[in-house]
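Task: complex structure prediction.
Instruction: return structure tokens for all chains below.
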Amino acid sequence: MRPGVNPYACYDTLFVISRTQQVMGNAMAGEVHLLAYLACLLSMYRGRAASDWGYWFIRSPYGAPYSSDIDRAVESMQANGWIGGVDRHLTLSSAGGLMLETLSQLGQNGPRKGPLDAACASILSVPMGIVRTAVSMEPELRNAEALSLDRTLLDEPEIPVPLHDQFEALRRALGIRVADLMVPAVVWLSYLSRVAQEEMGMQEPLTP
Amino acid sequence: MPVRGGRLRMPRIRSISLRNFSLFSKQPNLDLTFGDGVFCLAGANGLGKSTFLATVAYAVTGIVPPLKAKRGFTTVKEYYKSNLKSAPSFFRGRIAPQDMKDALVTVEFVAGPSAYVVTRGFARSNELIGLEIRDSADCVILDTSEWEPKKRHSEYSHRVAADVGLAAFEQLVFLEHMVLAFDERRHLLFWDDRAIEQALYMAFGVDPRHAQAADDLRKEISKHDSLARSTDWEASKLRTQRNSIAANAQGASEEDTAGDALAEYRSLSEHLEEGQDTVSRLLDEVQAKELDFARTSAEYTTLRQEYSEAFSALAQGSPVLAHHPLVRTSLSESRCGLCGTSDAGIADRIRERVGAAECPLCGSRLHGDEPDAKAARRLKQIDRKLAEVQRKVDALGQLRQELRGDLSTAEEALLQAREGLATFEKTYGRPRSDDDSDPLEALLRRYDEQIRELERTKDRYNAVKRQKLRELRPLQQALQRRYSEAEREFVPVFQKLASLFLGLDLGIKMKHREPGVGLILTVSGSERRQLDQLSESQRFFLDIALRMALAQYFSADDSKAQLLIDTPEGSLDIAYESNAGEMLAEFARTGHSIIMSANINTSALLRSLAEKCTSRQMTLCRMTPWAELSEVQKQHERDFDGAYGRIERQLARRRR
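Output:
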């Protein structure tokens, strides 16, 4: 394991692979970045700052959202034997499973579980391809993509206004406190996916 | 790229005429027309290129952009007001005294549906000697021949602001001077938070009145902030004086026997003192808790670092040998990955050792898949400590919030107590007691009253400031929303222009900086990084790129903007000069126009511009015949001719 590898990115990576392989047999590296980013957004929906997430994501021309911390975590944990699998299809080894169990007991990872759980559970209701399209329509990533700008996502101290507006609309629709984050996650992803379809001319415009 | 969203129709100057303009001694009467594309006035040093461009701006706005502003830009209204009288002194040194009375400038321009012919003298900014307005069918729609000069100017300012699509003439002056003119002031819009904020409101705001409202609110916030600070300073000065006198005072106050009014007065005073004590105590507590909070936060940050290190130690201590690349190669190829020996038994021997949790290389005992117990214990220890410190941070944060709330309530109560006392004093006057016979005590009391009055005043100023900030916030949010919607159209325009010049992946982002909003430059996605490597001249062109992008964005489809650019080349090298020419040509290519001046020696910029624009989109105007050249310049007149000739040939080349 390389020194300086981000423990939060390692935990998230193990968590996402563990949940994704239960549904799909394994996880692609890009899916780990995607679901961890979605979890970070959901944690912001719960009122936490993006800077509390422990690492950052960027928009790059080689794929977005992308986190170099997750990349390093995957690479290190593959060398270490916690993650196995062929090519980019990742699975958890028994040692990785035990490590996830150990890390899950730590208080540091407590607040991450809810958002990670909701992000991973959303693929039970929404196909992975749709999740990817929907997340790409989230205002921060969408703007960066439209401008083809390589930029750090969600790096402002305040939540971006368009994202804040969408979260507010979700809260109004679902009530202030829905215990399970999966409900707002799925509703939001469905909304974003519909916006994507509408832009591609596959849907009638949404009424406000 | 077509740019949507524009709604302004800024003045597009078609011609300008100067009469008795003595600076141009050989041609004091000049008539120039401006077609589409670039009009470039090229001349030698000291001929009056900057004065010419300042006169063009003056002709439309009645104001000369101030060369040495007394202070930075504050508000749109203030900019207009403070420069209203600057023109006469500016022109006094440039027009001979005997010509001042008869010197005139006439400008013809189109703004929205109307064509204007405006004639001004140079002595008064708010008067017009002539004004004619025609509609799109070329019919005169306003005859002002019988009007007073001031009335003409007043009518002109209202009409032109409305034709442009702005709420006030001051806004037009602001856009002309601060956005559309890059002149000898070398003012950089990018790095002027107050000016860029106004420009953004006008470019991206839903309603130009919002820009006006935000401008007014910013002015009020600054004013009340400054008033509160100076009042506080006054109060503190008085308090020091009062305490110094009191330190020498002796004797106790006598019993109050002056009746109900005095009793009430004292009760109110005590109430006030209690309030002051409470506020003072709470201020101390808040400060103490702030310190605790900062200390605990620092501890938390250190522990997070330790947590990362402990995690790395745990991970390093738990290699799963079967996955080690050396072991995997040896197993799959039955060949030692270290010494290269091939042997059918190698794989079995390695498997046996790995299975027995032994290192196949050194034979050391290892733990299996279980995480390293010692490292795991250490990680758990730090995790527990982190949770403990996190709880402390949360609790302190909560306490800090509560104390701040209490402080705010106590300040409110103090304000009420002050007002109660003030009302009493207003109604009954200040009750007198026997104490007043003591001149020292009477003096102290007068001090106290003055201090209390100043504190009340300061509180009032702060309350107004807070209120104005609250009123400003929705306007800022509306602007941020509009910008976010427009970003995908606006930013690429800037990126294209800026990358033509610098060849870098540049972008811009909107930033909220309390109490305002502004833009920041990004280089390859990083905020302002590498910016220090840009020279001053490179910054000029980035600023021009921003102005061009704003102008393209805010101009309506049926109206194109016109920039005034004064000798921008500075000290660029040949390569950047050439790129700068391409950037200016790109702006002209989109139908917008430029009136610029340049030194005739900077041929790389002009040649590149001429090559891109050709004579269809560029006019070169020789300025050397306008005024007397210096002796040195006269000796090199042939060089000037040669340089003009090269650019003119470049312009003509494509035409053929």
